[in-house]
Automatic annotation (TrEMBL):
EC number: 1.3.3.3
Pathway where this protein functions: Porphyrin-containing compound metabolism; protoporphyrin-IX biosynthesis; protoporphyrinogen-IX from coproporphyrinogen-III (O2 route): step 1/1
Presence of keyword S-adenosyl-L-methionine: no
Quaternary structure, from the entry: Homodimer.
GO cellular component, one term: cytoplasm
Top enzyme class: oxidoreductase
Pfam families: Coprogen_oxidas
Record field: compositional bias (Basic and acidic residues): 1-18
Gene: HEM13
Organism: Diatrype stigma
Name under which the protein is recorded: coproporphyrinogen oxidase
Amino acid sequence: MEPRTVADLDERTKREQGVDDQSPMRLRMEKFIREQQEAIVFALEQIDGKSFQRDTWTRPHGGGGLSCVLQEGNVFEKAGVNISVVYGTLPKGAVDKMRVNHRTISDEEHPLDFYALGLSLVLHPRNPMAPTVHLNYRYFETMRADGTPQAWWFGGGSDLTPSYLFDEDAVHFHRALKEACDKHDKAYYPRFKRWCDEYFNNKHRGEARGVGGIFFDDLDASESDAENTFAFVQDCLKSFLPSYLPIVERRKDMPFTEKEKEWQQVRRGRYVEFNLVHDRGTAFGLNVPGSRVESILMSLPLTAQWRYMYEPDPKSREQRLLDVLQNPKEWV
């Protein structure tokens, strides 16, 4: 029997032909992020000394994913490196809303098949001197009935969230991202750095979630062709391990006090606030029919605190962090 859905067609293509440079972009992006997930998990296991739990799952309507999660490790209190692949159908209302930012989306085909692919990573170290880090790279495509792309776009980025600010860590992290951006367009880093500062912001508190990085969304044919944008995303994702591993290696064994651990818990509470109140990815995931809630909420820390009217001491290291979060800096 011939495949009846795009998901069936893609699975048969991967099984019988494999994925190469002539394959649909969605399959090439999926192959790339699966390779990167494996490399990142391997590197993190070498640092932590404990293995990730690997959990493969499928969606009834096509797609699925691989969630790799480590809890109560030696270095990471909680770490997740997840891939999700979603095949679905957009009703007319959703199509009309998306056409605001993507004029290439058809206004004639309803409903419209779509494909969404993402690699999401969040690492919460035990040591309050070691920063939390977040990464997400994704690809979205609307498709005609035969599986050919109708419209497409990429999004992604990576950002650093310390509890205690070490300027050299922020500089190193931003420099790695800037080098990846500069290989493609000198305007990318300042543009996407500013976008990151504006997006990862707890507006209800008037402070950024962390010291930023880069963030971009909706990079489509109006920006560049698919090949160049894919190459840019590849370089950015490949820059993650060099951007973060030296930082966590420097900080994971530093001494800390009970009060410093308490401050980390309070800062994690602010992290949770952003993810549940402002993050579009969390909202999108929870509203997709058949979504896997455990994977979507993987980003939340194992422990956090909300203390009433908690304020750091004036001129303390904790206050300096808040000063930077309220007035984002240029690091490179």
